[in-house]
Amino acid sequence: MRRPSLLALSLALALPVVGACDEALPTDPAPAIETGAIAISGAWAPPQSTLDVAATQYVPVVDPPAISPLGHCTSTNPFACSCTHPACTAAYPGTAALDLFLRQRYQYLSAGGLYCCRQNSAQTSVPKLSVHAIGRAIDLMVPMTNGDADNTKGDPVANWLVENAEYIGIQRVIWDKRYWNGQRGFGLLSSASLPHTNHIHVELSVAGANKQTPFFTSGAYNNSCTAHCEGTLLIKANCSATDCANTGAQCLRGRRPRARAPPPPSRRPPSRSPAPRRRRWRRSARPRASCT
Ligand SMILES: [Zn+2]
Q1: What is the Å distance from ligand 1's center to 151 Cα?
Q2: Statement to judge: residues 54 and 21 lie in one domain
Q3: pLDDT digits over 78-98, tens only?
Q4: 57 alpha carbon to ligand 1 midpoint, in Å?
């Protein structure tokens, strides 16, 4: 994740509140990719900066139901869309929107598919539906290098998704033999799972799939933001977002986030933030006045 430079911080302190925000930019242009593919031996290895932000992220994971007893599949191939189940549903609006956003931001990615009423490809004792079957999963194909995962291309995408998991509503990311889970953090895939070296599997939370997270409600996903406060986030017209803790009291008077939106992420360790202590959004809080 890009961090503000000292110059940017100095300028921010000298500007009015709306100009004072230069924290993590969820819709920054995609980082430049160095030429020359790199297949790092072993699994996806996020840098310490990603691990630090990931430690602040929590997204409820809601998995699909078992296939039986309400449904059945006519093929044992987990990739055959051969199942029927009342829970199967086409891609949610947030799923489709994030798929488009990511393929525009990282143009070397190609579409790997969204909806398919099928069972989970990981072999489990009780077969259950894939998250693709319930409309909340995206596969993004990453060109391989020498038959292995290209970490130069795949890692920036996977890292960015984890760093912005609460902001977007990401409940799980699977890439290059490793996963990130919104409740349990990072882990290695079991031998019963595909290694995911040629594609990144992304799952949205229920709120994300329904476009109820700040990434969608701010308009950041289609670059159509208007400057406003959202919960404890300040969204600027260019779709950059910053924690209100960095902007002072004006932003803290912002309106309450939508009822089902998750708390915004904490993007900066307390020791690095000279701003007043941030107020945490609480579901029971009374609506506050709109910010101006
Ligand atoms: Zn997938």
Answers
A1: 18
A2: no
A3: 888 999 999 999 999 999 999
A4: 22
Question: 240 CA distance to ligand 1 centroid (A)?
Answer: 29
- List residues, by chain if needed, whose CB lies under 5 Å from ion ligand 1: 139, 201
HSE toward the beta carbon, residue 74, CA cutoff 13 A? 3
- Do 191 and 105 lie in one domain? The reply is yes
Cα of 111 from ligand 1 centre, angstroms: 11
CB of 201 closer than 8 Å to CB of 137:
yes
34, part of any domain: no
Per the structure, the complete domain to which residue 163 belongs is given by 48-209
How many domains is the chain built from? 2
Segment 5-60, tens digit of pLDDT: 333 333 333 333 232 222 233 444 444 444 456 667 789 999 999 999 999 999 99
Q: Which amino acid is at 97?
A: A
Q: With contact defined as beta carbons under 8 Å apart, do 122 and 166 qualify?
A: no
Residue 83 and residue 12 share a domain? no
| 212 contacts 258 by C-beta, under 8 angstroms | yes
pTM above 0.85, yes or no: no
| Cα 207 to middle of ligand 1, angstroms | 19
In degrees, rounded to 5, the angle at the alpha carbon of residue 133 between the alpha carbons of residues 127 and 139 is 105
What is the rounded distance in angstroms from the CA atom of residue 16 to the CA atom of residue 51? 32
pLDDT at residue 290 is higher than 50: no
Q: Could you tell me the distance, in angstroms and rounded to a whole number, from the CA of residue 254 to the centre of ligand 1?
A: 37
The residue out of 209, 243, 272 marking a domain boundary is 209
Distance 275 CA to ligand 1 centre (A): 41
CA dihedral sign of residues 195, 189, 117, 214? negative
